[in-house]
Amino acid sequence: MSLKDYNLNELCNYYNIECSLPNQRIDYGIERFYKFRQEFLKLLKNTHYGSLKGFLQFQFDILPSLIKAANRIDANYDRKVPEEMRYALEILKESKGFIPLNLMRIPLELLHYHYFKKIPCKEPSLEVGCGNGIVSNYIFKGNRITVGSDPSILSMIDAKRDGKVHRHYIGIDGNAIPFSDAVFNTLIAVHSIDHVSDRKQVLSEMSRVLQPGGWMAISDLSEYSVSFLPLPGILQNIGYSDLGDDFIKYYFHNGGLDTIETKSPDWYSKTLTELGFEDIKISYFMSERLARISFLFFSFELLAAERSFALAYTNDRYLKKQIHSFAEEVYLPLIAEDPNICSKENKGFNLFVQARKKVNTRSNSYLEENILKLMNCPLCKGLLSIEKDYISCIKCAEKYPIIEDIYFITPSAAEAYRYILEQVGNKKIYKKMSLKKRILMFLLNSKVLSIFIYKIISFIETFPILRKNISKFYGG
Q1: Can you say whether the dihedral through the CA atoms of 449, 450, 453, 458 is positive or negative?
Q2: How many whole angstroms separate alpha carbon 187 and alpha carbon 28?
Q3: How many separate domains does the chain show?
Q4: pLDDT at residue 470 tops 50
């Protein structure tokens, strides 16, 4: 799905408007894996597990015991875990969203925390692709980032509501960053550049808006990432090689990635040098063993669940206890040794890249409160004028939407917004929303009410019978 269609779908859902999107052509391999998955779920219902929860319970009765046993006889089992990592895990447990209960995201975000905490977030700073802000809240806790950005409209709305580290939120497409040259001192991209089809274009834009002497830090999939996914290997080893290849396509498609293409340290070193960077440091992280263990759970979850990260939404206390026990015993020792392991093996699932832009011109210095005045049109670089409900370009007259006081300065958002206006008109948009949607928006944007509802739910969950009914409501 193109970014324009994705944004249009978001706006239609947001405004409760029916809209028809063009039929998306799905790769034959992805379509075949969908059929395989449907057949698997059909057969799963006939087993004594009978449900997603039962299947997850099976995983946590067998797989953790298997891995713990192997880990305990490993020669490096008694390796010391730094208190810093235990502290990081405790913070992670308290985080909102899917991260604390997802056995793929726990080690990934612990490692992100380890690497990105070393980068001084000198303002003005920009995070490219912050999503709903949950990961940023954890990784950059204690720091302030001037602008958090993402091309997803609904993610930006969620980030504004739940975000804690960004001063401003702006809808931005990394292929055309709507800011003047040399604006930011720090640029950050946490696993977002792997979602674009042209990494060099995004890096070129990041270089353009970065001040001379400023630092850029990004994480990306490495050239080893695909080979470290365990489920394709399992399928291939039992004679279903084509199905293993299909899963790889399905995995990238489900994750919203535009391409399966990955990049090597040599590619990054060459590209960043061409773009005027120096002091380039590139490290592998997430060793082969850590990646295979993490994605073993995630692959089965992705296979069985109606949505990815479904495990994070279970209310079963036994599973939560198992997850955190497994993370402390298996993940923390591997994470503590991960830099050494990846350096020794010279490979890893991910890349961490940091570089400094060469100081060859005089850098500018902007005050934080002026940062939003330095935006320009991503199509023609013209000046922008802020109106009541939209932002217009003085040069090309393109209109960019303002939704819940968030500027969405992307061509895709402009096209989607133009379609909505053609369908219902500017003044009719809010009226097209259902009463339920208006009430929900009011609740979601009221922090006091959100806290009150959260406390009510937490109180109800203390009673076993009511908690059981809530679990049934969530599909447990």
Answers
A1: negative
A2: 38
A3: 1
A4: no
Residue 390 lies in a domain: no
Q: Which residue type does 163 have? A: G
Phi-psi map region of 133: left, alpha, beta (phi>0 left; psi -120 to 50 alpha): left
Closest to 211 measured CA to CA, from 189, 174, 186, 177: 186
Task: Give the per-residue pLDDT at 305.
Answer: 65
Residue whose token pair is 């990815």: 308
User: Which tokens hold the place of 461?
Assistant: 């969950």
| CATH label of the domain that carries residue 162 | 3.40.50.150
Residue 324 lies in a domain: yes
Residue at 228 is within a domain: yes
Single out the residue of 148, 156, 133 nearest to residue 6, CA to CA. Answer: 156
For tokens 């944004």, the residue is 7
Full domain range(s) for residue 51? 28-357
CA dist., res. 227 & res. 162, Å (int): 35
Query: Which residue would you say has higher pLDDT here, 198 or 53?
Result: 198
Element (H, E) at 185: strand 184-189
Q: Is residue 388 part of a domain?
A: no
**Structure tokens of 152?**
């997803």
State the number of CA atoms in the 13 A half-sphere of 456 facing the CB: 6
Instruction: List, in sequence order, the alpha helices (H) in 82-238.
Output: 83-94, 105-116, 134-139, 153-162, 199-209, 225-228, 230-237
Pairing outcome for strands 145-149 and 166-171:
parallel
8 Å CB contact between 181 and 98: no
C-alpha distance from residue 220 to each of 140, 197, 259, 354 (Å): 18, 13, 13, 11
DSSP lists the bridge partners of residue 166 as 145
- Residue position matching structure tokens 């997430």: 286
Model confidence pLDDT, tens digit, residues 51-106: 666 766 677 778 888 888 888 887 665 667 777 777 777 766 665 556 666 778 88
Can the peptide bond before residue 124 be classed as cis, meaning omega within 30 degrees of 0? yes
- Both tokens of residue 125? 């700073």
Q: What is the DSSP string of 169-186?
A: EEE--TTS--B-SS-EEE
Among 353, 190, 200, which residue's Cα sits nearest to residue 284?
Answer: 353
Compute φ and ψ for 260, nearest 5 degrees: -90, -5
